[in-house]
Amino acid sequence: MSEVTMPIVVGAVFGLGIYALVRALMPTKRSAVAQVARIDAMRARGAAYESARTTQNSDGRFSSTRAEVGRRVAEFYLQQGWEQRSLRADLAVLERSWENFLATKVLLGVAGLFFGPFLFAVVWTLGFGSSPIIPVWLALLFAVLFFFLPDVEVRRDAAEKRRDLRRVIGAYLDLVSMSLAGGRGLPEALMAAAEVSDGWANQRIRSALADARITGISQWQALGSLGEELGVEELKDLSASLALVADDGAKVRESLASRAETMRHRELAEIEGSAGEKSQSMLVAQLLLCAGFLVFLIYPAAMRVFQV
User: Fold this and answer.
1) In sequence order, what DSSP letters do the residues of the chain get, joined into one string?
2) Each residue of 176-206: pLDDT tens digit?
């Protein structure tokens, strides 16, 4: 019975995979707004891709192939309407390219397709397993696993970098409040506080404020756009609050001071929670070590008792 049902299950799985692939490749219907946004995005990426292509000609065939794969996968994502806003925000925090990220995912997935059968061949030479269906399952499993590994790495690194950014924002708000108390206006105070340090967070804030002067938008709107790009809620809330009290210097100072204090309290709570988690993990490790030592002491006596 199992010999009959196994080909049926394998055929059903392959048929479902082919159906999902066909559905993914079929273009979906989009609204006019989505179509215009897609055209604008492709036009904005055109110049960047051409400049990157000219610089990659001397980097080798692998880098050019990777760039081509990333471009094609990015175009496929645009055609399907897959925005992936959270991943784009994480990549913006890490200052990585969306096309290179997609190319890495695809190339790792292809590597997983070959790694699964290779692992089965190693296990088969050792005498374990003889079913011909196992390499197929291993290939699919490792392809999916390798495809999503960059997502895990990007989310982990972006979370760490956002924590650093929040610390910098808290200090930045204190500096802006001090500059306002010294008699500067809000635009000058925002730029002066960003010029104190050359860290990556201050550089991003400084470049956003400089772009605001060129484009003609207010600086708090630029901070809100930066928060939207990086996925940082504190910058978006700061932009909204500054837009409400931008004309009153006293209210701006009070708002900035209260926000900086709130962010410090939140950071202290996170540090205390992280310290508590680490102490609990150390306690569990110590208990396991004690349990293993007790087993090491009791085992010889128990063996003697059971032998008698």
Assistant:
1) -HHHHHHHHHHHHHHHHHHHHHHHHSPPP--HHHHHHHHHHHHHHHHHHHHHHHHHTTS-HHHHHHHHHHHHHHHHHHHHT---HHHHHHHHHHT--HHHHHHHHHHHHHHHHHHHHHHHHHHHHTT----TTHHHHHHHHHHHHHHHHHHHHHHHHHHHHHHHHHHHHHHHHHHHHHHHHTT--HHHHHHHHHTS--SHHHHHHHHHHHHHHHHT--HHHHHHHHHHHHT-HHHHHHHHHHHHHTT-HHHHHHHHHHHHHHHHHHHHHHHHHHHHHHHHHHHHHHHHHHHHHHHHHHHHHHHHHHH-
2) 888 888 778 878 888 888 888 888 888 888 8
pLDDT digits (tens, 9 = 90+) for 98-119: 888 988 898 888 888 888 777 7
Task: Please give the pLDDT value at position 36.
Answer: 53
Question: Which has more pLDDT, 27 or 155?
Answer: 155
